[in-house]
UniProtKB/TrEMBL annotation:
Domain Nucleotidyl transferase: 14-290
Protein name: UTP--glucose-1-phosphate uridylyltransferase
Organism of provenance: Lipingzhangella rawalii
Domain of life: Bacteria
Keyword match Nucleotidyltransferase: yes
GO molecular function: UTP:glucose-1-phosphate uridylyltransferase activity
Enzyme class: transferase
Similarity annotation: Belongs to the UDPGP type 2 family.
Membrane-traversing stretches: none
EC number(s) recorded for this UniProt protein: 2.7.7.9
Amino acid sequence: MTHSPTGAAPEVRKAVVPAAGLGTRFLPATKATPKEMLPIVDKPAIQYVVEEAVAAGLHDVLMVTGRSKRSIEDHFDRAYELEEALRAKNDTQRLHAVRESSTLAQIHYVRQGEPRGLGHAVLCAAAHVGDEPFAVLLGDDLIEGQETLLNRMIDVRNRFGGSVVALMEVPPEQVSQYGCAAIQPVADSDAGPGVTGSVSADTVLVTDLVEKPPIEQAPSRYVIIGRYLCDPRVFDVLAETPPGRGGEIQLTDALRVLAQRDTAAGGPVHGVVFRGRRYDTGNKVDYLRTVVEYACARPDLAAELVPWLREFVDKEKLDAHG
């Protein structure tokens, strides 16, 4: 295994948030409203993602958007008329909530002209990111304890160089819904000279990646959830990556190439195994679960909501048994 350089790794400062998807699974709600703006209680899902990036020290955020996504830009902009109305009412709580989204980070935007896949969306960020490592956060995945996952991934990138993906073990029947990784353990000695600190059991080396494999061809039960730290040389690989599964340019395919390289050429690829709670808001049932769980975790809502939920569930059980 090739070791990472002994010098300090370039700092990860920038985050890329792909937000150009059509949101067809949530039609007709997403006919005029971006799926990223669907609320989780009283904040749009994409704000949680930006907050996660900021909590990990990534204050430069690039949104890759498309047509009909203007409301995302509006949400992270100042709303002077609304702010003035709230100030006149002395409604400081809502005034703070409205202002919060516009002061979270330095947010930039670029358009993905046509939906050609996640890899192409990431490639659209090349001019803004330049020759720096960067994070990619998918808005469909909300991560509990998110600040620890990204910081852990940054730590692994600092130790080994290359790229890092967040992995999660799933039941066999779910592997074909994700990019799936072949992995092997790593040891302290793999980090190279000059790199100190023990390598946790959550760190693995990714030796291969397959996008949405059939169950019988899956290399493991470890799949990529929507968090990546990418070496900037991924852009050169993406520029040469042909359309893959679904006729789209897949980020998984580009990372598969980097997984075969040493540090000097943009590799390797490591994984951080996440064992916490992940909320997949990309499908309707999980989206509803997310809303309920986030609401129940809110002290201002739980006192009224949780007893009602218990009553509702008990009533459903009675009705089901006639």
